[in-house]
Design goal:
By secondary structure, this protein is of the alpha+beta class. Helix content is 59%, strand content 16%.
Amino acid sequence: MRVRLWARRAARVPAFAVYFLWSLALANARVAWEALTPGFSMRAGIVRVPIHTNSDWETMLLANVISLTPGTLSLEVSVDRRALYVHALYIASREAFEAHIGELERRLLRALR
């Protein structure tokens, strides 16, 4: 039973890595474009994003993955540990940003659990 669990995780980790690397490439391109072109198209802000992690390890890993992406930075975990405060350079809407972070969290937790 334990071997099957590890086999499933071993298949999910590369899937998360591909998703994260693609997101990383897109974020790098967006920030580079902003730096190289005239004008200012950023809509920066801080968003309280609900999270569904079960441990400090999962929360720390999610916060670090978010902070590794250019244009986003994890600032703080709420006192009840059910939300993460994230600063982002590009926020089209709060709902869209929450959905993006939620998808990142869902894929990360799927790889870890």
